[in-house]
Amino acid sequence: MTPALLVKGLAFAYPDGHQALYGIDLRVEPGERVAVLGPNGAGKTTLALHLNGVHTAGAGTIEVAGLPVTKVNLHEIRRRVGLVFQDPDDQLFMQTVGEDVAFGPANFGLKGAELDARVHQALAAVGMTDHIDRSPLHLSGGQRRRVALATVLACDPEILVLDEPSANLEPVARRELAEVLLSLGRTTLMVTHDLPYALQLCPRSVLIDDGVVVADGPTGDLLADSELLAAHRLELP
Ligand code: ATP
Questions:
Q1: Is 46 in the pocket of ligand 1 (CB under 6 A)?
Q2: Within a domain: 202
Q3: Which residue's CA is minimally distant from atom 19 of ligand 1?
Q4: Residue 23, Cα to own-chain centre: how many angstroms?
Q5: Least CB-packed of 61, 148, 159, 214 within 10 Å?
Q6: Is residue 167 part of a domain?
């Protein structure tokens, strides 16, 4: 089967010369939910930003559903890879929730009834239909994060990439978001520091440190390995 995501030998240095990734290999099958774990500065966000075309690889390749990202334009990469940023403010900038969710699919050519249906579907998937006419500014942190998720779901991506989805959420919002993510049934790569969230949502985890993959396996096995966690400055609460 063609993998949903295939990353081979991905290396990247920032313009100041800081080498953030040293040859990342990662394969994600369709329907899998995989957590990307690692201490501060490990390279998790840098990896996520490559998948969405924000950064361009110094070396290596990335394929999304069999298509090399270098072969398609940025517009198309962003339709295929739904990146949900850590801060919903980076994704919500229109006057209403409905306008924010319509922005992506409208950009990709949907209009009229088809566009409306897509917006409603995406908002229903995150439990935010009733808020369609509200300003995103008037929503709670958890609601804003779910609307940010709807903005990418509305583009029907091949893979969702979530950067720290549970950061700064209070327990109820955290649980609501987990329920939504589990109900979507979508291929998902989730960058997180939140080890219990990884365990709850992702059967598999990849541990990155210093720009290399140091472990890849069932999340329960990784988190049960106290020596591995300690070696990479990770701690279960
Ligand atoms: P965190 O969990 O703290 O968000 P991370 O695993 O997501 O960390 P990255 O943000 O990908 O790590 O950073 C990887 C390395 O690249 C770090 O050493 C970081 O300091 C460095 N880095 C990140 N952004 C830049 C930048 N714009 N310019 C130079 N170096 C950067």
A1: yes
A2: yes
A3: 41
A4: 20
A5: 61
A6: yes
Q: Is 40 in the pocket of ligand 1 (CB under 6 A)?
A: yes
Taking the CA of residue 16 as reference, the ligand 1 atom at the shortest distance is 29
CA angle 107, 108, 112 (to 5 degrees): 80
**Across 162-166, average pLDDT:** 96
* Beta bridge mates, 11: 22, 59
50 lines ligand 1 (CB under 6 A): no
pLDDT band at 89 (very low <50, low <70, confident <90, very high): confident
In a domain, 151, yes or no: yes
CATH (domain of 24)? 3.40.50.300
Could you tell me the pLDDT band of residue 71, with boundaries at 50, 70 and 90?
A: confident
When divided into structural domains, the chain yields a total of: 1
**Ligand 1, atom 20, residue with closest C-alpha:** 41
117 and 105 Cβ atoms separated by less than 8 Å: no
Is the pLDDT reported for residue 219 higher than 80?
yes
Does the Cβ of 211 fall within 6 Å of ligand 1? Answer: no
- ipTM for the complex shown: 0.96
Q: Which helix (H) or strand (E) holds 190?
A: strand 188-191
Q: Kindly state the tokens that stand for 157.
A: 């991506």
| Global confidence as pTM | 0.95
Euclidean distance between CA atoms 150 and 144, whole angstroms: 10
Nearest ligand 1 atom to the CA of 21 is 14
The answer, yes or no, to whether any atom of ligand 1 lies below 6 A from the CB of 38, is yes
**Which residues form the domain of 64?**
5-232
